[in-house]
Amino acid sequence: MKRLWQLSETELLSGRLTMARCPRCGGSGSYRQTVLSYDDDLQERETEQIVTCDCPRRPAELLAQANLPAVRFGGLTLADLDWDAIRPSEAVTGIRDYAEHLEEWLEEGMGLVLYGAVGTGKTHLAVGLCKLACGLGIEALFLTMSQLLNRLKATYNSQGNGSKQEIEVLRELADVPLLILDDLGAENPSAWARDRIYDLVNRRYLAGRPLIVTTNHGPQALAEALSERAVSRLWGTSLRVRLQGNDYRERIRRQKLRRVRSRRKVKT
Description:
This protein is of the alpha/beta class. The protein contains 13 helices and seven strands.
């Protein structure tokens, strides 16, 4: 039997995981529903009918709303990750455990911080966890830092004055069951950006809603880029995994080159 981190996108979207966890149909795909109707004498009566459950469709609907980078990671899940390139081995163990017990971690309000050098596979891991969450029927949203800040900036009018919409955007982001922030601290944030990031982190901290975060910074550097208050809340409610090793992208590039050259040899 496959582990959750070994499932393909097709398997995640099949609805098998959501059906197995559905309290309404109990995995059968349908349920009985009581319907009120009236007879010819206008007397109320109850009848039962078999209704097809919508739980198998939920993963695909959630994935469509998750804002994942479709071109670069289209079709890819944790199963497609080059796990041999992930270092150290303790990181592999920790990430796989987090994926395998994702529902338990999220129910406990525990997120995940993936930090380390550029090209160590952090974004692929975050995308894979987001797809896994959708496959489990958990609403998730993936945002790069520039996308997050652009959403907030879009609520400002031409005079640069804030509007109530910014509060609404922050509230919506705070309410998402699982929020993934990619490349936290990658840009040199302004005081305005640091305040909004802290606001969002604090809202989710108070609500017990977890974050999955990727960053190139360790805790001290991230605190300097953002604030100690934000990082304290983030670090205090997350499993922290430091990734090391050679550039993951370079390894993937070499694999693609070998595949292209191999296909050319077959054709000739």
